[in-house]
Amino acid sequence: MGRIVILFITVCALFFLSVFCVRDEKAKEAETEEIVEVQRCASKAEECTKIVLKDGGKSEISGGGAEASFAGVSIAGKGRYEISGTLKDGQICVAAEDAPELVFDNVKVHSRKGAALTVTGGGAKIVLTEGSVNRLSDACEYGAGEFTAACVSAENSLVIEGEGSLFVSGNYADGIACGEELRIEGGSVNVSAVRNALKGENIVLAGGNVVFM
Questions:
Q1: What is the pLDDT of the chain when averaged over all its residues?
Q2: Tally of structural domains, the chain
Q3: Residue 121: pLDDT above 60?
């Protein structure tokens, strides 16, 4: 009888021990997953560069891949760039082989020299933040050395998406011009131009609302 009691107690002890071990293992797995997720989010945050546009070379940049100057802001790295603020006289110049993502959150850029936004290299994507109103306008006369003829000029391809608004004023010639494909997938895109509102080898209106003013 005593042996049976001892055996019963032993079996119960092993059962409860196994339950606690399983729970502990699950807790460790959950903790590991949480750590990995935090690291993943931190990695994404590091890849995102924040830019607040200001005149006179005073634009505030938090992160890598971008540089401020008296001419405006130049972007040469891959990844995501969250852009806000105003340039009363300046340009955003993108020159990157890996097409960066430009997130516009109430961006206002006017250039007195040439284009407001130029993209060379592998192209770019513009994402219009929900509820944002973004305005780009170029000069009526372009200065010496300007190789573009549009307010938004992309050497290769350009994609526009999002839930915000974009107003483009092509005061010199074209509004938005691309050497290859211009693809509009979302947002409210409003364009006025002296010559062509939209120009490209292939223009795809896949979504959003495009208005020619």
A1: 87
A2: 1
A3: yes
pLDDT higher at 30 or 193 = 193
What are the tokens at 1?
């009888």
In a domain, 18, yes or no: no
Within a domain: 148: yes
List the domain range (segments joined by +) for residue 140. Answer: 50-212
Quote the pTM value: 0.79
Residue 81 lies in a domain: yes
In this structure, are residues 171 and 151 in contact, taking their beta carbons and an 8 Å threshold?
A: yes
One-character DSSP codes across 59-123: -EEESSSEEEETTEEEE-S-SEEEEEEEESS-EEEEEESS--EEEEEEEEEE-SSS-SEEEEES-
Quick check: 135 and 108 in contact, CB under 8 A? yes
**Cα separation, 136 vs 47, whole angstroms:** 26
**CA 177 to CA 152: how far, in whole Å?**
6
Sign of the alpha-carbon torsion through 19, 22, 28, 31: negative
Residue corresponding to tokens 């896949």: 206
